[in-house]
Design brief:
Aspartate Aminotransferase, domain 2; four-stranded antiparallel sheet; globular; binds pyridoxal-5'-phosphate
Length: 403
């Protein structure tokens, strides 16, 4: 695979920032879109647009075919067993909230919900809200200084009263690839449901939800080169059939009278209202693009960038890394001396380098390390070693100005 060829597919990578070529290293926040995705969305609106699952007219049928074909592609992308197990959402946050809300009726004050110390706010707050509604206890699997979960403690937290274990597959702030398989095995002993926040694994490693054996798996389109406002909640059929719908409205019903409404079968039971059709179509195009290149191949590019960038950054005096697990994806969180991450990030931007600074929607992690935030460089397969070199040059110049 030629890097130059891949980069040609992403129009935004050819623009400049403050007169310098854009070096986009904020992929854990959102990814850029290849032309095929932009074209699919544009073509949807210029050739297909109509409401789905309703009209008998040709456009409505074409629109329905387009979004249902995106569902098939999504099923294949994460190797779900059945297409009905793929629910389209607004994104990861929406998927987790759907499960946390729908679970309410199954949870009471004797139960507990288990999360981990390295979760994104999206996988903390909905569970806190569920606990507030039901009186259940929120338990947190702790991590060590490398950003690795302490599994012995996880074994103590998960017990016969655990209803849900909700954990991130890959940490967006630290890059740790978490041992979710071991957590699933622990939860299985007690029949607890497992939800995996896959916002950072879907873009970066091949995912097989049947192999993971989690009950739920969520991810966001905008982090896998698809449009914003579209995401996926995978759930095992048995769970999706058991859970009540999260929202009511059109699309999700079988029959409605003022006395009683019966719900549609899955997946529609969880897709109230007119869905984000263009987003679904864009998702399908993004998945085609990723699968055409092969997730294994794309992951290898990012692994090389992670290794190269880590070795380069190590040479900078005063460098402190946060997240030093052995198994990591392409995320590097760091601080240099006591330079404030915001100052460093602002100067790097002047050199065209887009990195993220702050708490990365994971304030408890920053509290754990006793820092206000970090600078985070996060890679996608369209980044190159030249991008890393440009980042290094910008860091060196910025640090000189700030010291
Ligand atoms: C980005 C992210 C989320 C939230 O995704 P949204 O697209 O904002 O809903 C949740 N968890 C992790 C690990 C993330 O990286």
């Amino acid at each position: 695979m030629k890097a130059a060829q891949i980069r040609r597919d992403f129009p935004i990578l050819h623009r400049t920032i403050h007169g310098k070529p854009l070096i986009y290293l904020d992929n854990a926040a959102s990814t850029q879109k290849p032309q095929v995705v932009i074209d699919a969305v544009s073509n949807y609106y210029s050739e297909i647009n109509a409401n789905v699952h309703r009209g008998n007219h040709l456009l409505s049928q074409l629109a329905t075919d387009a979004v249902e074909s995106a569902r098939d592609k999504t099923r294949a992308f994460i190797n779900a067993g059945e297409r009905e197990e793929i629910i389209f959402t607004k994104g990861t946050t929406d998927g987790i909230n759907t499960v946390a809300s729908s679970m309410s009726g199954f949870v009471n004050h004797l139960h507990n919900i288990v999360i981990s110390a390295s979760e994104h706010h999206a996988n903390i707050v909905p569970w806190q809200m569920l606990c507030e509604r039901t009186g259940a206890e929120l338990r947190v699997i702790p991590m060590d200084k490398k950003g690795v979960w302490i599994l012995d403690e996880a074994r103590e937290k998960i017990d016969q009263n655990t209803m849900v274990v909700a954990v991130g597959h890959i940490s967006n702030a630290l890059g740790t690839i978490n041992p979710v398989e071991e957590i699933v095995a622990m939860a299985r002993k007690f029949d607890a449901a497992v939800l995996i926040d896959g916002a950072q694994s879907a873009p970066h490693i091949p995912v097989d939800v049947q192999h993971l054996d989690a009950d739920f798996y969520c991810f966001s389109g905008h982090k896998i080169c698809a449009p914003t406002g579209i995401g996926v909640l995978y759930g095992k059929r048995a769970w999706l059939e058991k859970l009540p719908p999260y929202q009511g409205g059109g699309e999700m019903i079988k029959t409605v009278t003022f006395q009683k409404t019966t719900y549609a079968d899955i997946p529609f039971k969880f897709e109230a209202g007119t869905p984000n059709m263009a987003g679904m179509v864009g998702m399908g195009a993004a998945i085609d693009y990723l699968m055409h290149h092969g997730m294994v191949n794309l992951a290898a590019i990012e692994d090389d960038l992670l290794e190269y960038a880590t070795s380069q950054l190590k040479t900078i005096e005063g460098m402190r890394f946060f997240g030093t697990a052995e198994k990591k994806a392409g995320v590097i969180s760091f601080l240099i001396d006591d330079i404030h991450p915001y100052d460093l990030g602002t100067l790097m931007d002047k050199f065209g380098i887009a990195v993220r600074t702050g708490h990365h929607c994971a304030q408890p992690i920053m509290d754990f390390f006793g820092i206000p935030g970090t600078v985070r460089a996060s890679f996608a397969f369209y980044n190159t070693r030249e991008d890393v070199d440009a980042m290094m040059a910008a860091i060196k110049k910025s640090v000189q100005m700030l010291r």
